[in-house]
Automatic annotation (TrEMBL):
Membrane topology label: Lipid-anchor
Species this protein is from: Streptomyces luteolus
Name recorded for this polypeptide: Lipoprotein
Broad class of where this protein is predominantly found: membrane
Location relative to the cell: Membrane
Length: 274
């Protein structure tokens, strides 16, 4: 009888603990849903778009939104992976996939939002035909953006890439270089600053806009949107795709209001992808 009493007490104690843990877990989930969603973003246009949502749309949707700005392409993903932020909005799908592969991270895209056309810019030239033999062009030095930049130059007949090397192209994969162009590899965020030191630079759209360049007007030529894989995405750590806060933000990022904001504010320099 005494042994039975002990077992029954143990079972009751275990049951109480289980109920307590379940209740606590449910509370945590509920609390998480009401917590602010912190989103890492580069300043332009990503943080601007997010701040438009924060100021105009989020409250009505029941979303508390905090925007944390970064000026590089590495820290936002690291912060998302370690949970310092709940999501990020700054990168293309190919960059995300390459980052996961190289860094062992577990990031997934939730929504496709916009395209920032890559452009060739110069402070010395008025048109690409003015590039002289031996001219120097700055390129972003991360693998994804560099291969994209080289394909961009090839599409505009400045170089020819080796067959089969396009997806991961580096300057070593150039098959033909009629103008003997030289390439200076710099961090993507520094490409606008490099303009004073080179003849031209391939610059990502967000960094061009952040440097007060107007892509639709100032670029010697721009990427086209047709068949372009380089749309910018909202990303989270795998497993957080169904977070109600993330779902609300994804809905707002692809709303008619945000589409109009992008079209009005950026005048073709940023293009909605939805």
């Amino acid at each position: 009888m005494r042994n039975t009493t002990k077992i029954t007490a143990a079972v009751l104690t275990t049951g109480a603990l289980t109920l307590g843990l379940t209740a606590c877990g449910g509370g945590d989930e509920k609390a998480k849903a009401s917590d602010p969603l912190i989103v890492a973003a580069t300043p332009v246009p990503h943080a601007e778009i997010l701040n438009y949502i924060k100021d105009n749309l989020a409250e009505k949707e029941g979303l508390k939104l905090e925007v944390k700005e970064f000026t590089d392409y590495v820290q936002p993903n690291q912060a998302t992976e370690d949970g310092s932020v709940g999501a990020n909005y700054f990168q293309t799908q190919p960059y995300l996939e390459d980052f996961n592969k190289k860094n062992g991270t577990h990031l997934a895209s939730v929504a496709t939002v916009h395209l920032e056309p890559l452009g060739l810019y110069s402070e010395k030239l008025k048109k690409a035909d003015d590039l002289k033999k031996g001219a120097t062009i700055a390129l972003p030095n991360d693998a994804d953006n560099e291969s994209r930049a080289l394909r961009f130059l090839a599409a505009n007949d400045l170089i020819t890439l080796k067959k089969g090397a396009e997806a991961t192209a580096t300057p070593q994969d150039i098959a033909k270089n009629p103008k003997d162009l030289q390439f200076k590899e710099v961090e993507a965020a520094q490409t606008p600053r490099s303009l004073k030191d080179v003849d031209a630079a391939v610059i990502n759209g967000n960094y061009a806009i952040g440097a007060d360049l107007k892509p639709a007007k100032d670029a010697l030529f721009l990427e086209t949107t047709k068949g372009n894989d380089y749309n910018n995405v909202l990303a989270v750590k795998e497993g957080d795709e169904k977070d109600p806060r993330v779902q609300k933000l994804a809905k707002l990022l692809t709303s008619p209001e945000v589409k109009k904001f992008i079209e009005d504010k950026y005048a073709g320099s940023v293009l909605p992808s939805f």
